DNA sequence: GATAGCGCTATACCTTAGTATACTGCACAC
DNA sequence: GTGTGCAGTATACTAAGGTATAGCGCTATC
């Protein structure tokens, strides 16, 4: 384990940052939606179908929050009928280092528990 | 951004790992408790006092979960009166790379939002 | 003109997470 | 023997997160 991770745990700002991050990605559906979008699904119904058991209510609620956090864009194409496309942003990819750490931690954790 | 973070988002196992990790550290109090223990608080009442508004119920519930995940140890010293000490484990420190990424992501995110 | 698909919203409900308050049993101090 | 601190537990409640179901307005297809 590298020493760069040694950090001042008593720093209340750091704590706040951790809580902020948790707030952005926690909830039952957020990561699932990001995954669905990452694998190319763009349209509302398409995303809904790709995520078993999600309801329309939850999907639109979570998409809105992801959009507010600039992790997802919503584009309205003025064709007829109107076509709406959701896409993950480039910015969303800045989550990767963190998600990657989560994956490797949990992988290791499985061997410990 | 380094390429080592490029990852197969459609991999369902990775998704499961992320959810596992979130499960371990999410909730209103877990990180606060880890912080309190990290800054040297060891005894139940002491921890409780250091975290504003936490109730005994939540504290004991969360400590149990943290103990189950081997992030915290509970030691009973058989003096009279009995003395109980909680401590974070060395293993808990393996969370640091991830928490560190969370902190830096949220720091950056503040500038974006 | 009935049915189906699109992109949702509305309402009501249920379940989980967290809160509030009281209480237990033990040891010590006054 | 009353009060204090320790380490909690028990019970009841509220709030937040999530579910279930129905429906809207639009367009296209049969």
How would you describe this structure to a colleague?
The structure is a homodimer of 113-residue chains. Chain A is globular and about 55 Å long. Chain A has five helices and two strands, in the order ααααββα. The model of chain A is unreliable at 1-7 (pLDDT under 50). The first copy, chain A, has one domain (11-112): Arc Repressor Mutant, subunit A. A two-stranded antiparallel sheet of chain A has the order 1-2. Chain A has 113 residues and is mainly α. Chain A binds a DNA duplex (30 and 30 nucleotides) through helix 4. Chains A, B: Keywords: DNA-binding, Transcription, Transcription regulation. Chains A, B: It holds the Pfam family HxlR. Chains A, B: Residues 11-113 form the HTH hxlR-type domain.
């Amino acid at each position: 384990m590298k020493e760069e991770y040694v950090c001042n745990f008593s720093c209340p700002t750091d704590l706040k940052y951790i809580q902020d991050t948790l707030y952005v990605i926690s909830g039952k559906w957020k990561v699932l939606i990001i995954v669905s979008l990452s694998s190319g699904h763009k349209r509302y119904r398409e995303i809904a179908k790709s995520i078993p058991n999600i309801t329309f209510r939850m999907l639109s609620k979570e998409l809105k929050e992801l959009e507010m956090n600039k992790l997802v864009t919503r584009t309205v194409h003025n064709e007829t009928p109107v076509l709406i496309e959701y896409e993950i942003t480039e910015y969303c990819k800045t989550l990767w280092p963190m998600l990657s750490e989560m994956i490797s931690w949990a992988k290791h954790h499985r061997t410990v528990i």
